[in-house]
Amino acid sequence: MKQKVKLGVVCLTRTTYEYKTAQAMYTKTIEDLKKLPDVDYTFIEECVIEIQDAEDAAVKLLAANVDGVVIISGTFHLGHLALIFAKYIKKPFLLWAYNELPYDGGKIRLNAVCGLNLNASNLYKTGKDDYSCTIGDSIDEKWVDALRVKVALQNARVGLVGYRAHGFFNVGVDDMDIYQKTGILIDHYEIADMFSQPVTDVEIEEEEKEVRSLFICKEVNDTQVKKVAQLCVSATKFVEKNGLTAVAVRCWPEFAANYGISPCAAMSILQSKGIILSCEGDVEGALSMLAGAALGAETPFLADLSQVDLQEDFALMWHCGVAPANLWDGKSERTLDTYFAGGKGVTAGFVMKEGHVNLIRFDTARGKTRMFLAAGESIEMKKQLCGTYTKVKFEQNINDLLNTVTETGVAHHLAMLYGEYRDVLRLAAKMMNYEVIE
């Protein structure tokens, strides 16, 4: 399911063109838009022609607290109208013009595209940049999906458990900068808050059955399996109790020392259930994953661009053992392992499934927030090492990709999404005034 959004929709016309025809077209558009899932609408059902009409409509949309406004140019229209909506509503706009109707021997019938051009020019010259344009008989669904990303971020409640990992300066964030750019207030919690929620023996026993059904547990002992199960229950209660949308976890070095095991395996299970969890206190990594979830991407995975092979032109998207368990390739052994932290690093271990993937990273540096994007194919490989990973052949040469990442200082955690979302994410970056790095 995608992030739900609230749209205001209005159609602008002028009586010197075929405004009654445009009204009929708009009425059909309203019915078509209602078929788009996960969208709530406030429609201005009568076309807006005069300045006072626009004032009244803008007040209505403002009261509805819409997330974005679709301004349809049904015909050419007064230049005042879109500017009035921009005066009242500080949200992204989609400027949409209907296709021109066939000529019938008289003057141009709609001149709608010229109306769109007028609106775009006026808005641009006022300094408004968060608008996009489309021409046709149907809405630009990519714009709607881009808005879902923005709304998911501004409505998110993000928790930081502990702090960023020791020495990972490059994933640290400025809380007030995050708030200014997204509206998110980051709530800080102690590590113990995540693992010390009250749980019952029955809850642990039920969860332990699931852990053992998912993973081969011969490399870990019964106490460690029980610890994984207990943490799954406690962490779920922690997220629910605090109403958190995403959580960044300082998963080492203190977690294993204080709880007895690392949280990696539990995070793999919880992420497969749709809970957004990022490793090593990486808040912007969590936001990158949240963006993917807003688009309906299947359980995003935060990974390192690892084991780069310049000769064979691929890299492993690897992490120590936290990938969502449902992304398993169905072929490799899906195991629990204890390969670090003196035997306390209980992690998931499997190869991830094949398929087309996108990489995304929100990353702030030198006062700017950037969105890094890349794409490739997750290809079949045998299980060769511990952790969760997949071999990815990227669209661009791996050496060029690595140079882009290092020359622009992009952090070493990237959210991996199965599917193709780059067009939508570029639009989302424009809405949020983020620079795109590709």
TrEMBL record:
SUPFAM superfamilies for the chain: FucI/AraA C-terminal domain-like, FucI/AraA N-terminal and middle domains
L-fucose isomerase C-terminal domain ranges (all copies): 338-437
Record-level GO BP terms: fucose metabolic process
Superkingdom, taxonomy of origin: Bacteria
InterPro entries cross-referenced by the UniProt entry: Fuc/Ara_isomerase_C (IPR004216), Fuc_isomerase_C (IPR015888), Fucose_isomerase_N/cen_sf (IPR009015)
Chain coiled-coil ranges: none
MF annotations from Gene Ontology: L-fucose isomerase activity
CC per GO annotation: cytoplasm
The entry's keywords: Carbohydrate metabolism, Isomerase
Name by which UniProt lists this protein: L-fucose isomerase-like protein
Native species: Ruminiclostridium papyrosolvens DSM 2782
